[in-house]
Amino acid sequence: MRHIAVVGTGYVGLVTGTCLAELGNKVVCIDSDARKVDALEQGRLPFFEPGLLELVLRNQHGGRLSFAREVAEGTRGSEVIFIAVGTPMADDGHADLRHVREVAMQIARSLDSPKVVVNKSTVPVETGDLVASIIREHKTSDYDVHVVSNPEFLREGSAIADFMKPDRIVLGVETPVAEGLMRALYAPLEAPIIVTDVRTAEMIKYTANAFLATKISFINEIAAICEHVGADVKDVVIGAGSDRRIGAAFMNPGLGFGGSCFPKDVMALQCIAEGHGLKPRILDAVLTVNERQIERACTKITEALGNLKDRRVGLLGLAFKPNTDDVRESPAIALAERLIAGGATVAAHDPVAIETARERLGDRVLYMNDYYESANDAEALVIATDWNEYKQVDFSMLRKLMKGRFIFDMRNIYDPSDAEAQGFVYVGVGRPRNGVIDKESATRANLAEEHHS
Ligand SMILES: NC(=O)c1ccc[n+]([C@@H]2O[C@H](COP(=O)([O-])OP(=O)(O)OC[C@H]3O[C@@H](n4cnc5c(N)ncnc54)[C@H](O)[C@@H]3O)[C@@H](O)[C@H]2O)c1
Predict the structure, then answer these.
(1) Does residue 281 lie within any of the structural domains?
(2) How much distance in Å is there from the Cα of 442 to the middle of ligand 1?
């Protein structure tokens, strides 16, 4: 059993701390946001993550997991300190390292024993050096501090399984002491461990996220071409992705990537490259294609409806992806904003992200308890997040509820023929029938609307 402190109890920090407690360690999770710590102490999660509450409660009751508001208090007696605070995008596109710097300073001022300080936040290359130098300059006692980079690859929505069964663990270390301790900590997971230097570990994380984002923008570009040549991108993905050199994972065309990682990490990597006088053309294209996806979706909806003014649109999904309440950089939120700006009335639903979405959108959209309520009287229904529950929709029920006949399936979760069999005009992403809606279908759908009213 080791004494571990984790600073930052967000999606990464709380999962890391809780899973390390589950592995038998004594863990203190620290957050400067008192509301988060209050919630955790009262047995509530500050965000939604499947399976996490049960694990938190079990380890809390087992005396292995506790919470603190101050770094000095929470790190007392610890051998290892994980830094898992946010590294959001600054106005100039760089990663904003203010929280990392602040925590490094607090660690320096409260050193009470030798420590291994592990950077788990996603940070630009050289941040390990920055943390080491802040601690060196500000430490008030002479204990050794070893700084490690241990980037995290978990995905919100499946974070516990991703942490417990990782494809690999990356350790950027500079000393045998740090390597030995980190290997021992992760030994119970029996996962492949890649040991390298700190800068390379930092670069691995950005490379992984930039590549995944590239796959998404690539397939979105292919989907746009499919719409014009009459090919079905779903089959294109299966056909091309079956090649082991390519793979179909992350080849899902849609509204583009969002969330708290890909947009900021691709941008930060671009800034790093430019800072070294390079012109990263692929990264630039990845971001440009991504930005266009919302515009493309909005154009499809506007063209089909004629205009958006006072048109009622049901919007299914607000989270940036299913199984999370995270709406940071959510394409669904961006689309909602565009629809509102065009004058539409948006009736939105999400199984868990209504509260987080409300913080962004306020009362500019209507929030519905049930997705059939979103469809009620809607002239068009837009699938913005591919929650499983939307996949089971009853089209005949939708037909009764909706005023119009358009389904904009921006996550390609339906078979177009199922929707069309019920008289809907189906618009997907990169699907042959209607990426570009023909006039006849549009007229049919708008006629249905007149019949309804
Ligand atoms: N969310 C993901 O899926 C994911 C996956 C891999 C890596 N990451 C990276 O991990 C890092 C954390 O991401 P997240 O999504 O967990 O962030 P988050 O915003 O959910 O949580 C960060 C937490 O740090 C706390 N914090 C900030 N400054 C603090 C301080 N000085 N002392 C104590 N607490 C402080 C905040 O209050 C917040 O609760 C980021 O660098 C992110 O890029 C995130």
Answers:
(1) no
(2) 46
Any residues with CB less than 8 A from the CB of 38 and at least 6 apart, and which? Answer: none
The pocket around ligand 1, CB under 6 angstroms, is made up of 7-13, 30-33, 36, 71, 84-87, 99, 102-103, 121-122, 152, 154, 156, 260-261
Range of the domain at 307: 288-452
Whole-number Å distance between alpha carbons of 386 and 127:
36
Q: Give residue 269 CA to ligand 1 midpoint distance, Å.
A: 18
> Which of 196, 224, 258 is the last residue before a domain boundary?
196
Q: How many domains does the chain have?
A: 2
Decide: pTM greater than 0.90.
Answer: yes
For 15, the 3-state DSSP assignment is helix
390, part of any domain: yes
Q: How does pLDDT run along the chain (453 residues), one tens digit per residue? A: 899 999 999 999 999 999 999 999 999 999 999 999 999 999 999 999 999 999 999 999 999 999 999 999 999 999 999 999 999 999 999 999 999 999 999 999 999 999 999 999 999 999 999 999 999 999 999 999 999 999 999 999 999 999 999 999 999 999 999 999 999 999 999 999 999 999 999 999 999 999 999 999 999 999 999 999 999 999 999 999 999 999 999 999 999 999 999 999 999 999 999 999 999 999 999 999 999 999 999 999 999 999 999 999 999 999 999 999 999 999 999 999 999 999 999 999 999 999 999 999 999 999 999 999 999 999 999 999 999 999 999 999 999 999 999 999 999 999 999 999 999 999 999 997 654 455 555 555 554 544 443
In a domain, 209, yes or no: no
* Domain boundary residue, one of 196, 227, 244: 196
* CA-closest residue to ligand 1 atom 23: 8
Distance from Cα 322 to the centre of ligand 1, integer Å: 20
Catalytic-residue membership of 261: yes
Distance CA 149, CA 122 (A): 9
Instruction: Kindly report the CATH number assigned to the domain that includes residue 427.
Output: 3.40.50.720
Specify whether 189 is located in the same domain as 301.
no
- Pairs from 283-287 (Cβ < 8 Å, separation ≥ 24): 283/210, 285/217, 286/210, 286/213, 286/214, 286/217, 287/217, 287/263
Which string of DSSP letters, residue by residue, matches 131-146?
HHHHHHHH-SS---EE
